[in-house]
Specification:
This protein has helices spanning 91-97, 115-118, 143-146, 206-209, 223-239, and strands at 2-6, 10-15, 18-31, 35-37, 41-42, 57-68, 73-76, 105-109, 135-139, 159-162, 172-176, 185-191, 194-199, 216-217, 243-246, 254-259, 264-268. The protein has 269 residues and is mainly beta. The chain is globular.
């Protein structure tokens, strides 16, 4: 992968014959008590020194990823719009900065249905974020959860389920990574002999969870399963020498995963 453009809210890369653009929706600050040690034990004041805090809080980037095959664009996640913290909702600005016309985004696919990944379907002023949308893809196991979101009611009938292992296009397929949520999914992008694993909430705190993948998150629906999925996908990333892109990795959130003697390391691209 080669970086081809960058700005405050976007970074674009060439992967084979395709372009993948990281789009910065913003960030959210979370208390350190969200982190969980095995056994659902809350961290006290014993966080490792490499974990940087902002005013005592963990700062998580919120990223979405646009995959351009030259014909149309598939958008993985949409950010939060104005549905949560005011530090998010910059996806439209990121798209403009990256010179991505929203009319070319015909497919939106969700890693899972938590609000910081799905509410960008609707702009802060109430208009549709993607007026030419023809496919809205939701993990089958979370379709009812998506349809319970009152703010997104106009999209309930348009949402279509996808299953683990399903191919979305000639270059994109899906890998089941449940745990953070029941249908949490990783999207594998392949082009020109290169591979990019695009995930949602496999890693929340990159300064900690690559080195300590056993650490989970309070909002993981099933902490044991989330831990297993994280280990599975990190091993897959190192075993194939591919690239990764994460919704909560520090913006732009793209890089490689390598093994150390005992665990993993993230190397930003």
């Amino acid at each position: 992968m080669e970086r081809i453009s960058a700005g405050h809210h976007h970074t674009a890369y060439k992967i084979g014959d395709m372009t993948v653009t990281s789009l910065r929706d913003g960030y959210v600050d979370m208390p350190t008590r969200r982190l969980r040690q095995p056994g659902n034990i809350v961290f006290g004041d014993d966080l490792p020194s490499q974990v940087a805090l902002v005013d005592g809080a963990l700062r998580l980037s919120v990223n979405a990823f646009a995959i351009d095959d030259g014909d149309e664009i598939t958008l993985i996640d949409t950010g939060a719009s104005n549905a949560w913290h005011p530090t998010m909702g910059h996806l439209p600005e990121a798209l403009r900065e990256a010179k991505i016309a929203v009319g070319r985004i015909r497919t939106v696919a969700f890693t899972h249905t938590h609000l910081d990944h799905i509410h960008g379907l609707i702009l802060a002023d109430g208009r549709d974020g993607f007026p030419q949308l023809s496919r809205l893809l939701v993990p089958r196991a979370e379709l009812d959860m998506f349809r319970a979101e009152a703010r997104l009611e106009r999209f309930h009938g348009r949402a279509r389920p996808f299953d683990p292992g399903q191919r979305l296009s000639a270059s994109i397929d899906t890998i089941a990574t449940p745990g953070h949520e029941v249908g949490h999914t990783c999207f594998r992008v392949m082009s020109g002999g290169e591979t990019l694993l695009t995930w949602g909430d496999i890693v929340h705190v990159p300064s900690l969870q690559f080195d300590h993948p056993e650490i989970t998150w309070e909002f993981d629906a099933d902490q044991e399963q989330a831990r297993a999925s994280r280990l599975q996908i990190l091993a897959m990333a190192t075993g194939n020498g591919c690239y990764v892109a994460g919704a909560h990795l520090d913006s732009p959130g793209v890089g490689r995963v390598s093994r150390t003697e005992t665990t993993f390391r993230f190397e930003p691209l």
